[in-house]
Design goal:
191 residues, mainly beta, 8 strands, single chain, elongated
């Protein structure tokens, strides 16, 4: 039996060997890999939910709601729901071809789960109002912000801030980097 706790990654593994015949050994096991998504200590996470309107930030564009400790209904605190159903069975065998044990055939198969790299979660907190989205094209590099009629957003608009409910949002926000709330870990079958 093996039990591992490291950060948000937990796993529990049980296995057993069975001597099915004098030359055949079978190994069976199962691993449980529950997924507890990372959380932001300041609750700066967002969810894309078509048709939803944020109560936490009423000025947010439709479809963008927010997690955290005072989260909108429908957006989990970490922006992704926990997933406890990651069960990975494994089976293996070893068969001795010769009585002198110099030649054998081995094989196995198992299901594995892979949690996303921690860097992937940075994008969940990189949305307005926690970090503004700035797209500037065809501008003067001497003063790029005033050339397009906006104030320089650095550094005041970035960092560990939680603005009030009346914060304004930029127009034309793109939600390309938000995990689905029902995200499931990729499952890998190895043979």
């Amino acid at each position: 039996m093996y039990l591992d706790f490291s950060g948000n990654d937990w796993s529990f593994f049980v296995q057993d060997n069975w001597h099915a015949a004098s030359r055949l050994t079978v190994n069976v096991g199962v691993r449980w890999d529950p997924f507890f998504p990372y959380t932001d200590s300041d609750g700066r996470v967002a969810c894309f939910v078509p048709g939803a309107q944020s109560v936490r930030y009423p000025n947010a564009p439709q479809d963008l709601i927010f997690g955290g400790s005072h989260h909108d209904a429908g957006c989990p605190a970490s922006s992704i729901y926990n997933n406890l159903s990651n069960i990975g069975p494994r089976v293996g065998f070893a068969y001795q071809l010769s009585a002198d044990a110099k030649t054998s055939i081995r094989g196995g198969a198992g299901y594995y789960y892979q949690a996303p790299n921690g860097v992937a979660f940075e994008d969940v907190v990189g949305v307005p109002p926690f970090a503004p989205i700035v797209n500037i094209t065809n501008t003067n590099f001497t003063n790029p912000y005033s050339a397009v009629g906006m104030a320089n957003p650095f550094p005041a608009s970035f960092g560990p801030i939680n603005p009030g409910a009346s914060v304004t949002f930029p127009q034309n926000i793109a939600f390309t980097q938000i995990f689905d709330r029902h995200f499931r870990l990729p499952q890998i079958l190895t043979l």
